[in-house]
Amino acid sequence: MTPHTEAGRGPDGAHGFAVAALSGREGALAAIYERRAVRAYTDEPVARDQIKVLLDAAIHAPSAVNSQPWAFVVIQEPELLTRYDEEAGSLFLAEPPAAEVANSGLPALDALRKVISSTGYVLFHHAPALVVIYSTSAGGVSDCFLAAENLMLAAWAIGLGTCPIGLATPLFNQPEVKAELGISPEWSVALPIVAGHPSGQVPPTTRQPVHVVTWR
Ligand SMILES: Cc1cc2nc3c(=O)[nH]c(=O)nc-3n(C[C@H](O)[C@H](O)[C@H](O)COP(=O)(O)O)c2cc1C
Q1: Which of 104, 162, 191 to mutate to test the pocket of ligand 1 (most atoms within 8 A of CB)?
Q2: What's the whole-model pTM score?
């Protein structure tokens, strides 16, 4: 990131875009456009300090009346990741998709069920770290999603990859799993997100054109 200069002024005294560039604002756009859902990771663990960067970025998200209705679980133990991965997969295969799974961003859930049951598809994509964001208030899930995006953009900024794992949401809402993780029964999962060092390049994804209905 380029250094900040005297407030409101670049080194040449210019205002506006030059100042924005100097303060690293263009980096925010780069993160937005270049972040991808990463589904292949190296074995390299994520350092605790890197996880702290992600969590700190997450809690700097805006929230309604600054309520900050989020709490985090971080899982890096390989055995626990494997167990939860398997349990999340079994739950997904056994239960009809809940609303949050249906909205998981994966278009072909039936096809995915076949893949998971027949090929040993791994929900967590072998990532070495998982952060589960819980909403600590009934209306806090939307705030938590802003925190989630902050977390993912920060990960991109420090060279990590992330992938939201909506398919694991039902598992982390199970009472016994919440109890094991020290999560209050009243809190609900906003989004599990895996993180790690990307293995290879992720090709760009497409977006539909902006759908502006009214612009008056
Ligand atoms: C709420 C939500 C849940 C998602 N759940 C999963 C998931 O369970 N597994 C997965 O591989 N990707 C998941 N994704 C990632 C999306 O598939 C991905 O963001 C989308 O295909 C666009 O790709 P991009 O993020 O690289 O732009 C999820 C994304 C969101 C926003």
Answers
A1: 104
A2: 0.86
